[in-house]
Design goal:
By secondary structure, the chain is α/β, with parallel strands linked by helices. It is 40% helix and 14% strand. It has 12 helices and 12 strands. It has helices at 16-22, 24-27, 38-57, 71-85, 101-112, 130-136, 159-169, 240-278, 305-314, 334-338, 343-346, 360-380, and strands spanning 4-5, 65-68, 92-96, 116-120, 141-145, 172-176, 195-199, 210-214, 282-285, 295-300, 317-318, 349-353. The strands form 3 sheets. It has a 7-stranded mixed sheet, with helices on both faces. A 3-stranded antiparallel sheet has the order 9-10-12. It is globular and about 65 Å long. The model has no long low-confidence stretch (mean pLDDT 96).
Length: 383
């Protein structure tokens, strides 16, 4: 049976073009970028070319891109690095109630160190109000961190307006753009973003490579200390093959983003319409229009999300109940609770995320089999 992958928000397969670009850097151009000899300098050239290509996707300068191993590391560096470097100015940080767990946990760690964290509420679509951001600011506010697009429900935030408010108030603004990077246009200057996190494996690059954009002049403290790589902000030997792959994925995104977005959005809209039409008691989570083109998140009355995921997998379809980082937890999604769902409703969630190799035939198959799965599960539970 052919397997159908509809969990692209969790991770993406590596694009064959990305894989080919990476290959020489495993065994032929393998030098350490800190070495002075020709092997090292060859690797250094590849590193800096990759930095320039990734910066070009978001309108940044190449020296403003700091390579890390993961989005989790990038987000930790953004929050902790800014907090530790600017605690003389204040100890107040603002985040939203729907941030990724690595932002939530970093903020929690900072609270334990004596910082104050304000978590902003969102509306029923998962949107943060720029007015609420402004109202939450006070004399000691040093950082605002708002996710660009939700990894669970796909809602896109008004980061340009939030960035403008932060710039006017002299407060650093960070956005977790892991899900939006390479999918929708981002310009760090137009959005007034000071720090931005992105990850390779969410956009058809390899795992093990990510970056943090840090605007020139931003006061930030490293959280890893050692040989002083990455302008002293992230010591560790860089993962050059993965970074080269990350850069190739960005180059591909520059060429194909618009066309691919239009194609996937049509499939997503067909999926949403099919599910809401064919399944009674099905509800869409997130904004109906202002959402990522590849995201469709639902909740179903009288059905457990985990049961749906298991039944879909038996039918050859890979989907999820929410964030891949939290999928093993029994608690309902904090994102779904934040948009107003009750615990029982949040437990009945299903996240379908489309990607580069998703076909209309696959979407038709999902629409065909899902109603039967939901019906059987409801019958089993007596509903």
């Amino acid at each position: 049976m052919k397997r159908i992958y509809l969990d692209y928000a969790a991770t993406t397969p590596v694009d064959p073009r990305v894989f080919r670009a990476m290959l020489p850097y495993f065994s032929k151009k393998f030098g350490n970028t800190m070495s002075l000899h020709s092997f090292g300098q060859e690797a250094k050239l590849a590193l800096e070319k990759s930095r320039e290509e990734i910066a070009g996707l978001i309108g940044a300068r190449s020296e403003e891109i700091i390579f890390t191993s993961s989005a989790t590391e990038s987000n930790n560096l953004a929050l902790k690095g800014i907090a530790l470097a600017n605690k003389d100015r204040g100890k107040h940080i603002i985040i939203s109630s729907i941030e990724h767990p690595c932002i939530m946990e970093s903020a929690g760690w900072l609270e334990a160190q004596g910082f104050e964290v304000s978590k902003l509420k969102v509306d029923k679509y998962g949107r943060v109000s720029p007015g609420d951001v402004k109202a939450a600011m006070k004399k000691g506010t040093i950082l605002v961190s708002i996710i660009h697009a939700s990894n669970e429900i796909g809602t896109i935030q008004p980061i340009q307006e939030i960035g403008r408010i932060c710039r006017e108030k002299g407060v650093y603004f960070h956005t977790d753009a892991v899900q939006s990077f390479g999918k929708i246009p981002i310009n760090v200057n137009k959005t007034n973003v000071d720090l931005l996190s992105a990850s390779s494996h969410k956009m058809y690059g390899p795992k093990g490579a990510a970056c943090l954009y840090v605007r020139k002049g931003t006061k930030i403290e490293p959280i890893l200390h050692g040989g002083g790589q990455e302008s002293g902000l992230r010591s560790s030997t860089v993962n050059l093959p993965a970074i080269v792959g990350f850069a190739e994925a960005c180059e591909t995104a520059k060429r194909e983003m618009k066309r691919e977005n239009e194609r996937i959005a049509k499939l997503r809209d067909k999926l949403i319409k099919g599910v809401l039409t064919k399944i009674k008691g099905a509800h869409l989570n997130g904004h109906p229009k202002n959402r990522l083109a590849n995201n469709a998140n639902f909740w179903f009355q009288f059905v457990e999300g985990e049961s749906m995921v298991i039944q879909l997998d038996l039918m050859g379809i890979a989907a999820s109940t929410g964030s891949a980082c939290s999928s093993a937890k029994l608690e309902p999604s904090h994102v779904l609770l934040a948009i107003g769902l009750k615990h029982q409703e949040a437990h009945g969630s299903l996240r379908i995320t489309l990607g580069k190799w998703t076909t209309e035939r696959e979407i038709n198959y999902l629409i065909k089999v899902l109603p039967g799965i939901v019906k059987r599960l409801r019958e089993i539970s007596g509903n």
